[in-house]
Amino acid sequence: MKYSFKNDYAEGAHSLVLEALMQSNLTQQNGYGLDDYSVNAERIIQQKMNNPKAKVFLVSGGTQANLIVISAFLRPHESVVSASTGHIFTNESGAIEATGHKVHGIENKDGKIRPVDIQQLIDVHQNKPHQVKQKMVYISNSTELGTIYSKKELIDLYQFCQERNLYLFVDGARLGHALTAETNDLTLEDFGKYTDAFYLGGTKNGALIGEAIIINNENLQEEFGFHLKQKGAMLAKGRLLGIQFQELLKDDLYFDLAKNANQQAMKIKEAFIQIGCEFLCETFTNQIFPILNQNQIDQLSANFDFYVWKKLDEQKSAIRLITSWATTNEIVEKFITEVKNLK
């Protein structure tokens, strides 16, 4: 049986999460996110962010989180700006457009966008009201290319958005991996200060399902619950999400799992470096993109699954390898042995 490096959600959930679900199974609780576990999960997140005024809303998945936040925050004539590699632009089957909002894609080399890129886009959309109005900037951290934003980059983006009356929203499906990367200088508290909203992803980091949407902008908090309900995201058994985030966050298990995924990826990255391999981009999270020839790809494919991410020319392509919270040393060592034998 092949081991998969295709994604970081191939496994189920961490054993402590499953145990917590089992132990609380027959305890009666209120529904729709008013249970003790969801309330406690919100309190823990507020404490870790040092932002007691933030509001937390638990939903089942990342695409759901993105489309609800964006459609809730924007008026019908407003649009969202994203990197062309951004998940909402490339991998959500038009979910944002289906809510009636245009997504403007900005070309990039590293998965990140910067104020100058956004300003250039705004400058060519001045024919109002004939063109839609840019109102939100969407970024991912870590990005779809495994790169991360620095504290300066986040602050620069936030200040730019504040000056131009734009919302800044961060897709945090892999935020745990970004915050535990060896080159990271951001904290969870920074995301409480320098964003209007973001979410903390559980699906890709030890939970069965679940993302925690955190809204910092108090003007956007009050009626968000209506949007959850209308979009079918308000679970009657909201406890299922609350228990998972409570368990993952109370003793920082969430960050331990993300750190393990990053460390395993860096072991693999080092093995590719040792054989003289180049990479599509420099990453320090759980996604790496080594550039290989077809023979090398075929060799590795015999025992491992992964995606061929981008064909660069007739001879070489970049593949994407993703390690998960559950990736073991044994699996990584087997893969490294294969890498060392590449021809």
Number of helices: 14
Mean pLDDT: 97
How many beta-strand runs?
Answer: 13
Radius of gyration using CA atoms only: 20 Å
- State the major sheet: 7 strands, mixed
Written description of the protein model:
There is one protein chain. This protein has 343 residues and is an alpha/beta fold. The chain contains 14 helices and 13 strands. It has a seven-stranded mixed beta sheet, with helices on both faces. Strands 9, 10, 12 and 13 form a four-stranded antiparallel beta sheet that branches. The relative contact order is 0.17.
Summarize the model shown:
The protein has 343 residues and is α/β, with parallel strands linked by helices.
Q: Secondary structure elements and their pairing?
A:
Layout (H helix, E strand, L loop, with lengths): L2 E2 L10 H9 L12 H14 L5 E5 L2 H12 L4 E6 L3 H4 L4 H4 L4 E4 L8 H9 L9 E8 L10 H13 L3 E5 L3 H5 L8 H6 L3 E5 L9 E5 L8 H7 L8 H12 L2 H22 L12 E2 L2 E3 H8 L2 E2 L1 E5 L4 E7 L6 H12 L3
Helix pairs in contact: 1-11, 2-11, 12-14
Question: What key phrases describe this protein's structure?
Answer:
single chain, 343 residues, alpha/beta, 4-stranded antiparallel sheet, 40% helix
